[in-house]
Write a structure and sequence with these properties.
Elements: H1 2-27, E1 32-38, H2 57-64, E2 67-69, E3 72-73, H3 79-88, H4 116-121, E4 126-132, E5 159-163, E6 174-176, E7 179-180, E8 190-192, E9 222-223, E10 226-227, E11 231-233, H5 245-259, E12 265-270, H6 292-313, E13 320-326, H7 362-365, E14 369-372, E15 380-382, E16 386-387, H8 391-398, H9 412-415, E17 425-430, E18 433-438, E19 441-444, E20 452-453, E21 458-459, E22 467-470, H10 486-500
Parallel strand pairs: 1-12, 1-13, 2-15, 3-16, 4-5, 4-12
Antiparallel strand pairs: 2-14, 5-6, 6-7, 8-11, 9-10, 13-14, 17-18, 18-19, 19-22, 20-21
Length: 508
């Protein structure tokens, strides 16, 4: 009887200790940290930022319970550079390889380099990434049939479940901790970005096999009836089903939270929507009235709602710092015929701004940026200039972690709503070209190249003359003040040169 009583007392003590750990985790000054990062989502694609044709209730709820930043920035108007900056705290133009990568590119981040997950691991965080990577893998030619390294796991992530690049690039397989999921030994994967494999169908030569037609570029290997960029052979049973990707990534993100809920964790939930090809699950087909692009935005919003529900169910919502943003501005026709242009109606993915993806104008880098931490952040709206690149230093400051000097700045007070003061200035980048944002002013140096990209119909910011805009008074950047404010122009030219050097007048 005494033995039985002792056993039950031990159980009670164990349960009490476990309960105590859970409560301490909830009260900890080390919150769980989640970055929800969308792909090509524009400032005007979210109803919390003014969209009326689309309703995004779950993203709106983040904004209602947190801070909605009106001047939140990615560093770049394209994907790989923005992701590189966010994870390394470095301007991507400092690394000449930090450009839009093919699916077989080597790892862009040096394994000795500081990264956001490495910083958080110093505070005993478990770190994970689920979703789009697009920062390269391996050291050269990748053997997709063996363990692939280096990759996310070698630059600070304890767990990774990723697509190598983008949904429109091969290989169209998922990789978990360096291993292709579902790969069969007798059906090895081969990938090439220069030439096709003999006998393999392509969008260019086999249009009868396509269910989504390419508009420009995407005419190489066909997977699931969709032509891609690059050539791939093999790995038949490992290939993803496009319409299931959102559910697969959501389930992995939820699973990660449940497995690591008893200690602080950092999850980079890198969603693939609304990048092309836009392939909503049948549950969302036709829901937006704007075609597949609108449908996948609603799909992404639903996924965010389901993910937040998981945090609620696990008792983590109060002490989880959630950062929501996008890698760059929007694009409509990005390589496929999918009615994104034809069914746009009154919807303005770029919001009140000029430009979009690949542009030096505002819509290229001014993106939705919402921060929620229920037990700490008072809900509201902030006009502070904040940048994704600053997360490394700011979160490090919050956790009392120091690191080597980077371009990342401490904007923690702005991030938490304790101050309206963020950055003073930021270098904006688009496809190797840079501009300077300083206070209410943006200066764009003269650049060669088309004013408007024909395929995407986006204004790039190229002009033979200097451009100077006051984005407080002229949010749509319609009035070039370079000639009427020569003093401001000169100061900004000098500052831009001091930071970047002479602008590269790249011929296109």
């Amino acid at each position: 009887m005494k033995i039985i009583l002792a056993f039950f007392l031990l159980l009670i003590l164990c349960n009490t200790a476990y309960s105590h750990v859970s409560k301490e985790q909830k009260k900890s000054n080390r919150p769980n940290i989640v970055i929800i990062y969308l792909d090509d989502l524009g400032y005007g694609d979210v109803s919390a930022y003014g969209a009326t044709a689309l309703k995004t209730p779950h993203i709106d709820l983040l904004a209602k319970n947190g801070i909605r930043f009106t001047n939140g920035r990615s560093t770049s108007s394209t994907c790989t550079p923005s992701r590189y900056a966010m994870l390394t705290g470095m301007y991507p133009w400092r690394n000449k390889e930090a450009k839009i990568l093919p699916g077989d590119a080597p790892l862009l981040i040096d394994t000795q380099q500081q990264t956001l997950p490495k910083i958080l691991k110093q505070a005993d965080y478990h770190t994970g990434i689920v979703g789009k990577w697009h920062l390269g893998l391996g050291k050269g030619k990748i053997d997709w049939n063996k363990h692939i390294r280096p990759g996310p796991n070698e630059v600070g992530f304890d767990y990774s479940f990723i697509m190598a690049a983008t949904q429109d690039r091969v290989p169209t397989v998922l990789i978990e901790n360096g291993n292709v999921v579902g790969l069969e030994a007798d059906d090895p994967i081969e990938v090439d970005y220069t030439k096709n494999f003999e006998g393999e169908p392509t969008g260019l030569n086999n249009p009868e096999l396509m269910r989504i037609k390419y508009h420009h570029g995407h005419n190489n290997s066909i997977t699931n009836g969709i032509p891609r960029i690059g050539f791939m052979k093999g790995g038949t049973k490992a290939k993803w089903i496009d319409e299931d990707l959102a559910d697969v990534f959501l389930n992995k993100a939820q699973e990660y939270v449940r497995q690591h809920k008893n200690k602080p964790f950092f999850l980079y939930y890198a969603m693939h929507q609304p990048h092309v090809p836009r392939t909503p699950h049948k549950r969302f087909e036709g829901m937006s009235g704007l075609g597949p692009r609108g449908d996948v935005i609603l799909e992404a919003d639903w996924c965010i709602g389901e993910f937040m529900k998981t945090l609620e169910e696990e008792g983590l919502i109060e002490n989880t710092l959630i950062i929501f943003s996008s890698d760059n501005g929007p694009v409509l026709n990005d390589g496929y015929y999918d009615d994104a242009v034809e069914r746009l109606g009154d919807h303005k993915p770029w919001g009140p701004f000029r430009g979009g993806k690949t542009s030096l104008y505002e819509a290229g880098t001014r993106v939705p940026f919402i921060v929620q931490w229920k037990q700490t952040i008072k809900p509201g709206v902030s006009d502070a200039l904040i940048c994704q690149m600053d997360l490394m230093t700011s979160l490090g400051k919050m956790l009392n972690i120091t690191h080597e000097q980077t371009d990342s700045q401490n904007i923690l007070n702005a991030l938490l709503g304790k101050s309206e003061k963020g950055r003073n200035e930021l270098i904006l980048e688009s496809l190797t070209k840079t501009a300077l944002l300083q206070g209410d002013w943006v200066m764009i140096p003269p650049y060669d190249g088309p004013a408007v990209t024909k395929t995407t119909n986006i204004e790039r910011g190229n002009s033979p003359e200097y451009q100077l805009y006051n984005i407080k008074n002229d949010i749509g950047q319609q009035n070039n003040l370079a000639k009427t404010h020569p003093d401001i122009l000169k100061k900004m030219i000098d500052r831009h040169r001091a930071l970047v050097g002479d602008p590269k007048n790249v011929k296109e």
